[in-house]
Amino acid sequence: MQALLVFLIVAALSLLASSRSILDPGRFPALAQLAASGLLFLIFGAFLGPSLLGVLSARNLESLSPLVALGLGTGGVLLGLNLEPRLLRLLPRPVYAAAVAHAGTAFLFVALPLSVPLLLSMGLRPMVAVGAAALLGAAASLSSGHFAVLGYRNGRMERARGLGVALLTMMDDAVGLGVLALGLVLGVTGNAAEGLGLVGLALLLGVACGALLAFLTYSLKDLAEQTTVTLGMVALVGGAAAYLRLSSLLAGVACGATLALMGGRTAERVARALSRVERPTYLVLVFLVGSHIHARDVSAWALLPAFVGLRFLGKVLGGRFAQRLTAGVLDLPPRFGYALISQGGLALCLVAEYVLLVPGSLSQRVLDVVAVGAVVNEMLAHGAFRHVLSAERRASASRDTPSAGDAGVAA
């Protein structure tokens, strides 16, 4: 019954989010932006959750946790499918260094300072506090390149520069997933060896499911059969991981990476089948993450300005490092760091996974800070990207305007 209620609510919100009259960018630009990014569903989930209106109770959310795990598994498979081995081998080393630079700088700017209040305010063991601070840093390290994609599609940014931004924002997903694995190792059982074993089991489960999916879909030619088998196996990845108390997200990434490594038509078929359910799955997941927010947690609201401010500084400084490292290799726009402010949906997946596997007041506070911070960062990203576009226009104008010497030669 609770799952049906969630689907009905999300369906109603989807109709609202597709209304051109209500979400006209000319009339309500902020609302249209949040609807396009899916974060409008996060806000609605927070309002309907137990901490505000109470349409969904805490018991409802607990019974819907398998649905969250299925969404995390599906998102993980899609992430793993993007790990193209041929593309990764072709990328020069400065691109990897630039990705680590801009993601790592934001991670350090957030994780190191915020570990202090977590230790002092909650009286935690150092290992647990370090894991929670690492999750905050991992969420801060992630960026979304959707502003750059829209920029080059509508002609406001050169295509090569927009693709460069999208490439580096995709590569920092690996940093976030690696830190999630670290946080789970430190926090799931309190024993690093046992936590490492559980993370390893999640990856092995994903590899096994990916190999089985490739075997089952290899000889299928009917599109309906391929879609049914694909969705069933993806549900098996997330469901099996949740049943075994393993990471559904990491298992899904391992499954998708296995398919990408095999390559060929199998990976293309799976990606095509999942693309049909990607947006609805993402919106349901974002809504459920929003319903888990504790809006009355004063300590989370106190940490929020530090999280947003330190992440902003880290991204701007990390963007400068990335531009220096990729000079002559990758064409990036001026003020590249301002193009990295948007946070993206993977940050919500990281904290949702952390709450499922490491329940408690600490993981709840991490989710509150990151979820609300994602909305704030999305609003900041709109203004920050204007600085990128203005710098882009000035750079283009300076290239098109001939210098005095060139004018004399032309005369």
UniProtKB/TrEMBL annotation:
Superkingdom of the organism of origin: Bacteria
Keywords linked to the UniProt accession: Membrane, Transmembrane, Transmembrane helix
Transmembrane segments: 31-56, 63-83, 95-120, 127-150, 162-186, 198-220, 240-261, 282-304, 336-357
Organism of provenance: Corallococcus coralloides (strain ATCC 25202 / DSM 2259 / NBRC 100086 / M2)
UniProt protein name: Sodium/hydrogen exchanger family protein
